[in-house]
Every structure is written in C-alpha cells, then in structure tokens.
Design a protein that fits this description.
By secondary structure, the protein is α+β, with helices and mostly antiparallel strands. The chain contains ten helices and ten strands. Strands 5, 6, 7, 8, 9 and 10 form a six-stranded antiparallel sheet that branches. Strands 1-2 form a two-stranded antiparallel sheet.
Length: 343
C-alpha cells in the first residue's frame, strides 16, 4: 500500500481551471478535493487519531467549510480496529479499519496521480496516456481491495453506511475500467472522462461515509472487466475440452502441473504441483465437444508467464482449477504424490 503524505492544509490550487489544451480533463478543484477527502477518511481510520484530523478547514464545497470526524465513526473506530478481519500472507492479520484504509489510500493515489495530468493542479501536466501502466496498477489494486472488503464482511460495518461507500467504490472501478480501456486505444478524451468518473465516485464514497445511514442494505457491486494491461502478459494454454467447457473470462484459477519427478533414489515418481495461484482467465476458446482440445488465455505477470511456458515444456499435463468467486487468497501448497497419500 502506498504511504499517504500528510498534506492536511487548505488547497492552494482548488480554483485553477483546466487549460484549453485538455478540455476533457477533470477540474483541478475536483482532483484536489478528491485527494483531500480520501486522505481524511484514511486518517480517520488510523490507529492513532491525530487531533488535527478531527476537524479541519476545507475549501471543498458542501462541507460548511470544515471536515469533521462524524460522532458515529468515533464510536465505531475501536470495534473496527479490534476486529481481525483478514489474514494476509505477507502482512499477517489485518483489522477492519485497515481494510477500509487500503481502499481509501488507493483512491487517494488515483487523485494524486491525476494531479500530474491536469493543468492548474500541476505545473507541468502530462497526458494520462503516459501513465497507462500506473492507472492500470491502481485499477487492479482497487479491485482487489474492494473484493477483500466484501469477503471479510465489511458491508455490515460503518453503522449502515458501508453499502453506500462500497457502491461508490464500484463506480470508481467502473470509471477506471473505462479510462484504461480508452488509454489502450490512445483516446485521451475517453481516458479523462473515465478518470473524472472515478474521482467523482471517490468523492461520493466520502459523502456516503459522512452522510446519513443508507436505507439500502446491499451494495450495488460492479464486476470489473478482465483485460490485458501494460505490465502483464496473456499466456495461452492448450487444455482438454472437459476443462475449458466450464471456464469463462473473468474466472480465477490455479494452474496445476503433473510431471515425473526424479526422487533421491534415482526413481521417477508422478507428482502434481501448484505452479500458479489466483490468476484471471482472459479468454476461452471452447471445442465443439468435451473430448476436443480448447485454449485458455491467462492474465499473468512476466515471472508467472515464464513458469507457465516452462510447465508447457516440462510438465506431463496441465490442469486449471476454478476458484470460488471472490477467493483471492494464496496458500503454501505441498507437492502431491500417491506415495504420500498411501503412507
């Protein structure tokens, strides 16, 4: 998670207009206010609540000139900080407040990154097309952070406001979907529109957090498109028709390889190893019958692509096993063999 900078001071460029060269760019004020609100939400949920964060002056509209910690959130903070909601392979057990913080932090990063593309918010603005990889990375991390909030039951927190916040998070993912798709087509106008939609949704999530409890108890969840983006690879694997018949783009899978392993006594033994975990299916080419041969293309990073290619050459057979929707956890996997099974 990117560390937020402590910038809790009134915005100096909120009223700066976008230059005519970028007519579809978000207004500098909206970018700055989105960053300010996401940063404020992040610090409201921090273990050590800074007194300066409880109430501070703002130039953003609709706040009466102040951003004030809601009384209900001050009461609920302790429960969120105590609740162990998620076990991360690298960071250990994470509390509920941290899971919300992660999403707000990523949306802050979105606004902060956008400052560099908006005249008036940055002295030397660049086209968002130059930051395609960075926006793609923000999109993927936001998808994972929002999914983690759902899977850990955070929809039932925030004193009835979580569904509204999560709905807005989904709208932010949709905006980033549109922005990154436009970037892949070198469409600057479409990229700015998508980014603007994501920033508006970010501000909407803050409004939902600080407003009245939502009457709707279930969030409107947006399902992000699985798409190849800069920094990732699409690797195609030939598979039996019986496997690909039940695969669809967007599914998450583990890749298993069965091969002959050379044992310590120079004897060969069939073993199965999990080579890749939690990778997305980009495309599927299904045969007409289950006994035919199909193809599945997986979205992987460059390192994973090497292991997939190696498995095609060295492995005796490949298998993709589907994960439950929303299951993104990684686990240490012991190599399987019949010898271990029948000990």
């Amino acid at each position: 998670m990117k560390t937020l900078l402590m910038l809790l001071i009134p915005c100096a460029v909120c009223a700066a207009p976008a230059a005519a060269a970028f007519p579809s760019a978000p207004e500098a004020k909206e970018v700055s206010c989105a960053a300010e609100e996401m940063q404020t939400a992040y610090y409201w949920l921090a273990p050590d609540l800074d007194p300066g964060v409880r109430s501070r002056v703002t130039r953003c509209a609709g706040r009466g000139g102040k951003l004030e910690l809601p009384g209900w959130l001050e009461k609920e903070r302790a429960a969120l900080l105590e609740k162990k909601a998620w076990k991360d392979p690298e960071e250990g057990e994470l509390d509920g407040a941290r899971l919300w913080q992660d999403a707000f932090s990523i949306l802050y990063e979105l606004a902060d990154k956008t400052r560099g593309t908006v005249p008036g918010a940055s002295e030397k603005a660049v086209s968002p097309l130059e930051l395609e990889k960075e926006y793609g990375d923000i999109r993927l991390r936001l998808i994972m952070a929002v999914d983690r909030l759902y899977r850990s039951g955070m929809e039932k927190t925030l004193a009835g406001r979580a569904s509204g916040v999560l709905t807005r998070f989904g709208e932010a993912v949709k905006g980033l979907d549109e922005a990154t798709a436009a970037m892949s087509e070198n469409d600057v106008d479409g990229a700015y529109k998508g980014i603007g939609g994501a920033l508006a949704a970010s501000r909407g999530s803050f409004a939902a957090l600080t407003g009245e409890a939502a009457k709707v108890k279930t969030a409107a969840r947006y399902e992000a498109e699985t798409r190849l983006l800069p920094g990732y690879r699409g690797v195609s694997l030939p598979l039996s028709g019986s496997q690909v018949m039940f695969l669809s783009p967007g599914d998450r899978v583990d890749m298993l390889v069965t091969f002959d392993a050379l044992m310590a006594d120079d004897r060969k033994e069939k073993v199965t190893a999990t080579i890749l975990q939690n990778v997305s299916v980009l495309k599927v080419d299904k045969p007409e019958t289950p006994d035919g041969v199909g193809l599945a293309q997986l979205l992987v990073n460059p390192n994973e692509a090497q292991y997939a290619a190696l498995s095609l050459v060295q492995g005796g057979s490949l298998a993709l096993v589907r994960r439950a929707k929303g299951d993104v956890e990684l686990h240490p996997m012991e190599i399987a063999s019949f010898k271990k099974l029948f000990k």
